[in-house]
């Protein structure tokens, strides 16, 4: 485009100029040409300054139109009515809520039960530890008492030997003590012999009772000897020791004594306790043996209970 057209376009974008007016009114053409020759350098300079710059378009931001309530109702439609529950549905909903509440209460009670059981176990362990400690202290006290008595006896003997009469009296005491020791040893030996005979008799009676209790029966179409449970009274502590001391057993507590409230025994070799013939039973159809045995002894009551499980034997 020519400079004249550019100037004309530039001038037309602004306020009306003499040149634009002259184009519309030919009478004043001469004056317009004169004005153009005077303003051309200025227009060329303005045109050079604006070369290479893109035209900026003005945009006017208009605020969004406010939605009317009736427009939203037309778009979404009328609100759906909530359906009323039937009596059965209300009853089912109530039962569901009650079940959820009871489940929460059960979970809370279960947590409390676990906590109480843990405390009870810890208390039982502490009581058992204190009991074992008391038993050890009692043994130590007995030893200390024996040592003190021996020291007292030695001191008295030394005091007696300071005179001739005392030495004679000490010799007489030695004779008496030696004779008493012989009698005590003889009595102890006789007592042990009687206790051994009593224990053998009691063990034989218990073994016979266990064998008699192993009765074969048909259970679910199969021949079997069901598990058994027996109890025995007036079982002395020495008999209990003799009975299970000859077998391969596990004890609770490990270091038991007559002052323990209960003593538990577990073994998987009942034959080592009662003999192989006493733990076998059945018939010509099937033979069963005792596979495991559990016993509980209460020393204060002299009561022994035995439970066993059986398995197929060959």
Would you spell out the secondary-structure blueprint of this structure?
Layout (H helix, E strand, L loop, with lengths): L2 H10 L5 H7 L4 H21 L19 H8 L10 H74 L3 H50 L3 E3 L2 E3 L3 E5 L4 H9 L4 E3 L10 E5 L3 H4 L5 E3 L4 E12 L4 E10 L2
Antiparallel strand pairs: 1-2, 3-8, 4-5, 5-7, 6-7, 7-8
Helix pairs in contact: 1-3, 2-3, 6-7
Describe the structure.
It is a single chain. By secondary structure, the chain is an alpha+beta fold. Helix content is 58%, strand content 14%. It has eight helices and eight strands, in the order ααααααβββαββαβββ. The chain has helices at residues 3-12, 18-24, 29-49, 69-76, 87-160, 164-213, 237-245, 271-274, and strands spanning 217-219, 222-224, 228-232, 250-252, 263-267, 280-282, 287-298, 303-312. The chain is flat.
What series of H and E elements makes up the topology?
Answer: HHHHHHEEEHEEHEEE
Report the β-strand fraction as a percent range: 5-15%
Biggest sheet statistics: 6 strands, antiparallel
Radius of gyration: 58 Å
- Into which percent range does the helicity of residues fall? 55-70%
> Shape, please?
flat
- Which structural class fits the helix and strand makeup? alpha+beta
Let me know the number of strands. 8
Cα-to-Cα separation, first versus last residue: 123 Å
Average pLDDT reading: 80
Count of DSSP-assigned helices: 8
């Amino acid at each position: 485009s020519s400079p004249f057209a550019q100037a004309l376009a530039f001038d037309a974008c602004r306020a009306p100029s003499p040149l634009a007016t002259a184009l519309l009114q030919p009478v004043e053409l001469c004056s317009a040409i004169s004005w153009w020759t005077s303003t051309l350098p200025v227009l060329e300079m303005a045109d050079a300054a604006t070369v290479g710059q893109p035209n900026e378009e003005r945009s006017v931001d208009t605020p969004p139109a406010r939605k009317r309530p009736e427009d939203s109702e037309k778009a979404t439609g009328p609100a759906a009515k909530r359906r009323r529950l039937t009596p059965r549905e209300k009853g089912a909903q109530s039962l569901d809520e009650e079940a959820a509440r009871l489940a929460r209460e059960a979970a809370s009670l279960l947590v409390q039960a676990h906590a109480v059981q843990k405390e009870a176990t810890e208390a039982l362990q502490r009581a058992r530890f204190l009991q074992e400690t008391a038993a050890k202290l009692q043994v130590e006290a007995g030893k200390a008492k024996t040592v003190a008595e021996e020291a007292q006896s030695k001191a008295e003997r030394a005091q007696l030997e300071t005179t001739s009469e005392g030495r004679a009296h000490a010799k007489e005491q030695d004779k008496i003590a030696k004779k008493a020791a012989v009698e005590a040893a003889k009595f102890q030996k006789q007592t042990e012999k009687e206790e051994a005979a009593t224990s053998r008799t009691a063990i034989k009676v218990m073994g016979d009772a266990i064998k008699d209790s192993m009765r074969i029966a048909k259970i679910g179409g199969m021949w079997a000897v069901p598990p058994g449970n027996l109890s025995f009274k007036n079982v002395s502590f020495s008999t209990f020791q003799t009975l299970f001391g000859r077998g391969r057993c596990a004890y609770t507590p490990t270091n038991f004594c007559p002052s323990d409230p209960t003593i538990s025994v577990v073994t998987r070799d009942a034959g080592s306790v009662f003999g192989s013939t006493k733990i076998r039973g059945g018939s010509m159809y099937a033979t069963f043996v005792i596979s495991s045995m559990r016993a509980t002894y209460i020393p204060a009551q002299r009561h022994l209970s035995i439970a066993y499980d059986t398995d197929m034997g060959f």
